Amino acid sequence: MANLKPPLPRALRPKPKGPSEDNGKAKPGRKEKLAQKGISTIDWIDERTALSGGARWVMFRKIPRGTNWFYTLGSASLFAFLSQAVTGVILAMYYDPSATRAYESVRYLTNEVFLGEFVRGMHKWGSTVMVILVFLHMGRTFFYGAYKYPRELNWVIGVVLLILTLFMSFTGYLLPFDQRSFWATTVGVAINGTGPLVGPYLNDFLRAGPEFGVTTLARFYALHMLVLPGAMAAMIGAHLYLVARLGTTAPPWLKADIPADSRKDGT
Amino acid sequence: MNTREKEAYLREYSILKSQGKPFFPYSIAKDAIMACVVMASIILMSLTLGAELGPKVDPTTTTYTPRPEWYFFFLFEVLRVVKPPSLTPLAAIGVPTICMILLFLLPFYDRSPERRPERRPIAMAAAFFTIAAMAFLTYEGANAGSPNQIDMEAPEAVVAQGAANLRTWESGKQVVAQSGCLACHKIGHNGGTLGPDLTAIGGRLARQAIARTLVNPTAPMPAYTELDEKKRDDLVEFLAQLKGGEH
User: Fold this and answer.
1) Residue whose C-alpha is closest to residue A124's, from B203, B45, B88
2) Cβ separation A148–B115 shorter than 8 A
3) Span B182-202, mean pLDDT?
């Protein structure tokens, strides 16, 4: 296990104790006491979970030089997802997923609740921002050839995440239950129904029956609130694990100046 | 990529990696700045563009033109462009499904070890073509209105009657397009086949007869009594001018 841990950076290493300390005479100050408490808490957790190795492995892994601002698009997508999660939870506190009361609850949230329209606007426009970021992130991966060996599986997971993101915005579109969302979803579901083989079944599944009914909204709500975010969180976890495991790609133009003893260097 | 190329890549990468800087704090700092930019743009968009709520849902309405979110416009446009009903499933699901499968399998058919964009001409050409196609379809979809559009030029007879008549005709066409007529009726190249073809209705029915049918239609057709006077007159005028054969 020990060889898996990269060394701590110099600034974070504990300072060696001088001979004058630790002889019991000098009373530790408040700061030292607090620091000691913090360290002992972390030690307590680590003793039971052994997480510090993994945390060090993630946080202090090396990133190849030459990475530029395009490399932040992935974490920006993740951040947009988190923002959607937080604003979504706030919206869920006011939303009523029943066909008769959904519109009224959204209207109340938008017009009456303090900052209600602001939070709903953040969720609505956050979805646009997230879709753009996900596409840009995919573009960076494509143009840098980052989907090639050994990162093929992470590309596939990324495409799954792209599709889940689009399904998220499709299911979320119905929830305000105004004219626009209702008719756009009616058309969208009908388009799904024309698909090969599974089309009609997918259609019936989405609508919860052969017709657009009272239960359709509840179904979209459950997909948007539970199934899709859960699947996305799991997929994001796998995506990030593979990023840490395989390492961030170097820009394709970068060539290593190979030192003589390159064989010792395998990390 | 064969085993030798794989090993060469891994060796090269491990050197590049060992020469790099640790994720914390260098990459984290950049990511944090980017996160602030993302947050700021979301807040700014929310404040300036707001979140308007449309009118309450009404499944019985026939006058509403459905529009998807803008990033689905390209899909919407594919559906709109392909008119024959037999081709619609292919356009709506076939093409996107094929694109998705191609996207999924990208690392499995593009197996060359080359990563520099300037040395991957086929990949770059395909990417630029895809981006251009999606941008074009999105632009078209944004400007196209809806599948309810009627692609028909004003007949010469109407143009000859002067600008006022032409304006009435165009406005009537708009009303027809937005009132859901095309769900059942065919006009020119657009519309369904459930109800009678209206392409030459002006030749078969008099103006008053058309107006009467709108208010007091035969069974499955809904009555258009809630249209306002002006719109109904324009609509009747438009339909009365349809003599067929102009296109």
Assistant:
1) B45
2) yes
3) 76
Cα separation of B117 and B113, whole Å?
12
ipTM, interface predicted TM-score of the complex: 0.84
- b/e string for A35-72 if b means 16 or more Cβ within 10 A? eeeeeeeeeeeeeeeeeeeeebeebbbbbbeebeeebb
My answer on whether B68 and B105 are in the same domain is yes
Contacts of B24 in chain A (CB under 8 A): 59-60
Task: Render pLDDT for B108-158 as a digit per residue (tens, 0 to 9).
Answer: 999 999 999 999 999 999 999 999 999 998 888 787 655 556 667 777 777
Co-location of B196 and B217 in the same domain: yes
Position B247 in a domain: no
- Is A74:B30 a contact under the CB 8 Å cutoff? no
The domain total for chain B is: 3
CB contact under 8 Å between A118 and B47, yes or no, is yes
Q: Which residues of A touch B117 (CB under 8 A)?
A: 143-145, 252
Topology classification of domain A69-246? Cytochrome Bc1 Complex; Chain C (1.20.810)
Cα dihedral value B169, B175, B176, B182, nearest 10:
150
What CATH number is attached to the domain comprising B127?
Answer: 1.10.287.980
- Per the structure, the complete domain to which residue B105 belongs is given by 64-147
Say whether A177 and B14 touch across the interface (CB within 8 A): no
For residue B18, is it within any domain? no
**Cross-chain residue pair A149–B97, CB shorter than 8 Å:** no
Question: What pTM was computed for the model?
Answer: 0.78
Let me know if residue B171 belongs to a domain: yes
User: Could you state, in chain order, the average pLDDT of each consecutive group of 10 residues for chain A (267 residues)?
Assistant: 62 68 64 92 93 91 91 97 97 93 94 95 96 96 95 97 94 90 80 72 82 86 96 98 94 76 47
Rounded to a whole number, what is the distance in Å from the CA of B190 to chain A's nearest CA?
17
User: For residue B106, is it within any domain?
Assistant: yes
Looking at the structure, do residues B79 and B139 belong to the same domain, yes or no? Answer: yes
Q: Which amino acid is at B180?
A: G
Which residue has better confidence, B112 or B194? B112
The vertex-A187 CA angle with A182 and A191, nearest 5°, equals 145
In angstroms, the separation between the Cα of residue A202 and the nearest Cα of chain B is 12
Query: Region B62-70: what's the mean pLDDT?
Result: 71
And the tokens for A82?
A: 């988190």
Question: ω before B117 within 30° of 0 (cis)?
Answer: no
Question: What is the least distance, in Å, from the CA of A32 to any CA of chain B?
Answer: 24
